[in-house]
Amino acid sequence: MNFIDNPRKLRGFEKNIRVEKVSRRSILKGLGVTGGFVLAAPVMSRQALAYETGAGKMPHGVVVDPRVFVSVAPDGIVTIVGHRSEMGTGVRTSLPLIVAEEMEADWSRVKVQQAHGDEVKFGNQDTDGSRSTRHYLIPMRQIGASARTMLEQAAAKRWGVPATEVKAVNHEVVHSASGRKLGFGELAADAAKESVPSIESLKLKDPKDFRYLGKGQVGIVDLHDITTGKARYGADVRLPGMKYAVIARPPVTGGKLVKFEPDAALKVPGVEKVMQVRGWPWPSKFQPLGGVAVIARNTGAAIKGRDALKLVWDDGPNGKYESAAYRKELEEASRKPGLVLRQEGDADTALKGADKVIVGEYYIPHLAHVSMEPPVAVADVKGDKAEIWAPVQSPGGTREDVAKTLGIPEANVTVNVTLLGGGFGRKSKCDFALEAALLSKELGAPVKVQWTREDDIHNGFLHTVSVERIEAGLDKSGKVIAWRHRSVAPSIASTFAAGTVHQAPFEIGMGLVDMPFEIANISCENPEAAAHTRIGWFRSVSNIPRAFAVQSMVGEIAQATGRDQKDMLLQLIGSPRIVKPAVKDLWNYGEPFDSYPIDTARLRKVVELVAEKGEWGRKVPKGHGLGIAVHRSFVSYIATIVEVAVDEKGKLTVPRVDTAIDCGTYVNPERIASQIEGAAIMGLSIAKYGEITFKDGKVQQKNFDDFQVVRMDDSPVVTNVYIVPPGPDTPPSGVGEPGVPPFAPALINAIFAATGKRIRSLPIGKQLEA
Amino acid sequence: MIKVKINGQEQSWDGDPDLPLLWFLRDEAGLTGTKYGCGQALCGACTVIVDKEAVRACITSINDVAGREVTTIEGLHPNGDHPVQKAWRQVNVPQCGFCQAGQIMQAAALLMDNPKPSHDQIREAMSGNICRCGCYQRIENAVHLASTGV
Ligand code: FES
Ligand code: FES
After folding, report:
1. Are A414 and A267 in contact (CB under 8 A)?
2. Is residue B130 within 6 Å of ligand 1 at its C-beta?
3. Chains A and B: how many Cβ contacts under 8 Å?
4. Kind of pairing between the strands at A376-382 and A310-314
5. Beta-carbon neighbour count of residue A620 at 10 Å?
6. Which residues of B touch A739 (CB under 8 A)?
7. Would the CB atoms of B94 and A718 count as touching at under 8 Å?
């Protein structure tokens, strides 16, 4: 089984492997070994599928059962369960829409009900890895088709005609021979008595008859509630008798509380109690850091009370973490050989014999997610029962972890999933829900734990920090004959196991070893790097530094040899083919390689499409420049062109962005466009401002003043999105994350075109002002 | 005892007069449409309208609004059909939606002040409101649509 881009599966890894005791090779092997997961109901039949996905290998697999996901009321209202978390991608609309499409339900008579965390019942619920559509397009169609078939069978029985003579059409079943009709509501009770058809027997709709899928005409189900303030996020949950808490946590990862003085806090009006919160030693996956909680009648009082606390911490082993010094360590490591992960030909010899060697050393700092809604959770623990309300990307994992943390059976834990005010990977970690559970248990009352923005920035699970060093060797004709890429970055696995110094397969598989260029001599290496803070998944994960490095290097080669960036890119991609990197157990976003190969024809296609639609090579005003980049991630293919304008003072603006995406078969093009528009803005935030730095082990930034993100006045003026029409049976692939990685390198290549300055270190900050 | 009118209803508070209006609204009055995003007037998630002006509720104390009229997203229009809200739905603005109440209140205040803002004026007026999901292009278009008639 592949390792896993999934926090949950790391459980197996936790149990089986002690990283500090094993050799480098076996770390890589060890991360590939997971066990102990019951695939609840991987009922997908092979015949019914034109392709296979990794869905069945996720914890608890896939459940295809209309009785779990669909109910029809006598008044005809169809309720469809959305079992993934809504954080802005539109998934709470898209997956139920697939069911409605296939069952011929009229969307205006459909209600969506959010599933609580229960993976035995609903199948895997981890909403991350840009997986929902690619894992659930077919299962949701099958669920819809089953429900439709049951309604048809019920109608046929009522009329005493063969089921083959009746047909569900737009919320009713019709018998055209006799002109009879029955609404879904009228058939509901009888249909529920029908047996669930076997998956093999299901007839899926012909895509040409689709009313909703692929059309983009349906708004998200929460649109009205969001615009009227009624939408309920984690922060908005209120229970009778609920207390409000904020927590002072150790400022340094691995630090501990020495002592605290509660008196001043207790004098703040509205503060009711000050209490210690249990912490776990670092690293301990998603367990709370511990600290001191201030309990109050409202959040404002709790925050004011916390400000009045006197706290003494022991900073522990990471108290010296300092970003500038750490960067030097990474740079030095990148200049020496590291663990070889992919080797084709002989890059060493080829580089030595090359006519020209171009070297780029790229730096990408830590980043914080800063989802608009900071972490927050409500818990109500009574005896050996716990109920949680939280904006979590991992409802099933949260349930497991709450049970484990409180020492109660999982069956006694209910996790209610609210809307998420953004997630970006931060809310895959349920530490905030565990804090609420611990506090509620001790208080004997429901409690809300609210993280402030400062907490979010100081105590998160940051994006890694990395140096990506690439050496490209060219022969006399300018052809690239050698490629050596060393990636040095602390691994996410360090949050799970002490002593981790190498990146995990799911990290090296994100743009390092899966590099698609047609080059004879390739070496991809991973020198060691130890972590000094909690590292976690951040939207697009390691693809951010990799795409930045690889696609900047393409620009550098074009620049050094006087070639057009786009032509250079197509030349490097080379012939249309399936790339099979010489990597043992290549991690492919958890997907089978046969369904989701590395297909350079598709990579070329998005470059060509964006070049055509985005008018590559168009004349731009003085001080403007165009840059291009392409990247495959989350098994989708995306190319972006950025037009940048840099004025004499070095102020940078982005008049236009064009992006082409090939994400295979898709459900809702309107939401794809919104994800890509948003990805351009997040990409620009990363490139322009994104940097978390450490001094004395502590994060130096605190809020949106010193950890800036793009605002409307510096956001791209226009972002155009082009979606490649899928071929028949092209498997669906990721959308939420793939838009981010190509943005920064396209921007940096554009800046070079505009100014002649090559930026290798993010963020851009003041580098253009010099 | 501090008295304040919120969405047309008289409310009173005899606790800490320095309590930020944001937490009074959310935790004491149960009006959770107004969001917390930063607490430092940096993100605009908490934007409400006081009399006719957009105000950051996170740095405005309940005492500051004594005797004044506060409008939150819940009170912007009885059916949620304020031109800005309608435009928002027509343009499909939101992603996660968490910043949107603040954005809508800021846009409504802008249009009270300047019914026909130019694109540059929209971009400037809305720049105190962060959308981490990155809906800016659509926000700009929706404000423009609201100003030209939905
Ligand atoms: S919460 Fe008030 S401006 Fe951010
Ligand atoms: S829609 Fe998510 S922060 Fe604006």
Report:
1. no
2. no
3. 195
4. unpaired
5. 18
6. none
7. no
Atom number of ligand 1 nearest to Cα B59: 2
- The encoded tokens of residue A642 equal 């950025």
> Residue A710 and residue A685: Cα distance in Å, rounded?
5
Of B22, B42, B97, the CB nearest to A226: B97
Cross-chain residue pair A705–B100, CB shorter than 8 Å: no
SS3 content of chain A, % helix, strand, coil (to 5): 35, 25, 45
Q: What's the whole-number mean pLDDT along residues A105-131?
A: 97
If you average pLDDT over every residue of chain A, what do you get? 93
Distance from the Cα of residue A13 to its chain's centroid: 21
Q: C-alpha angle with apex A31: A26 to A36, nearest 5 degrees?
A: 120
The answer, for A704 touching chain B at a CB cutoff of 8 Å, is: yes
When pLDDT is cut at 50, 70 and 90, the band that residue A49 belongs to is low
What is the tens place of the pLDDT at every residue in A258-307?
999 999 999 999 999 999 999 999 999 999 999 999 999 999 999 999 99
Best substitution site from B91, B133, B139, B140 to test ligand 2's pocket, by max atoms within 8 Å of Cβ?
A: B133
How far, rounded to the nearest angstrom, does the alpha carbon of residue A687 sit from its chain's CA centroid? 19
> Model confidence at A34, in pLDDT bands (50, 70, 90)?
very low
Whether residue A197 has pLDDT greater than 50 = yes
Which of the listed residues B23, B38, B99, B131 should we mutate to test ligand 1's pocket, taking the one with most ligand atoms within 8 A of CB? B38
Q: How far apart are CA A73 and CA A171, in angstroms?
A: 12
User: Measured over all CA atoms, what is the biggest interatomic distance in chain A, rounded to whole angstroms?
Assistant: 83
Expressed in angstroms and rounded, the spacing between residue B58 Cα and the centre of ligand 1 is 5
Which residues 406-425 of chain A have a CB within 8 Å of chain B? Answer: 419-424
pLDDT at position A28: 26
The secondary structure of chain B in percent helix, strand, coil, rounded to multiples of 5, reads: 35, 15, 45
Task: Over range A421-444, report the average pLDDT.
Answer: 98
Which two tokens mark B88?
């928002």
Instruction: State the burial class of residue A404 (Cβ atoms within 10 Å of its Cβ: 0-12, 13-18, 19+).
Output: middle
Please judge whether A704 and B19 are an interchain contact, meaning their C-beta atoms are less than 8 angstroms apart.
no
Q: Distance (Å, rounded) from C-alpha A169 to C-alpha A183?
A: 10
pLDDT average, residue stretch A117-131: 97
CB B72 within 8 A of CB B82: no
Which chain A residues contact residue B18 at CB under 8 A? 304
Residue A417 to residue A394: CA distance in whole angstroms: 9
Preceding amide of A283 cis, omega within 30: yes
Q: How far apart are CA A737 and CA A722, in angstroms?
A: 16
Instruction: Please say whether the beta carbons of A760 and A644 come within 8 A.
Output: no
Dist CA A289 CA A375 (whole Å): 14
- Put simply, the answer to whether A227 touches B88 (Cβ < 8 Å) is yes
Residues β-bridged to residue A488: A467
Return phi, psi of residue A138, to 5°. -70, -50
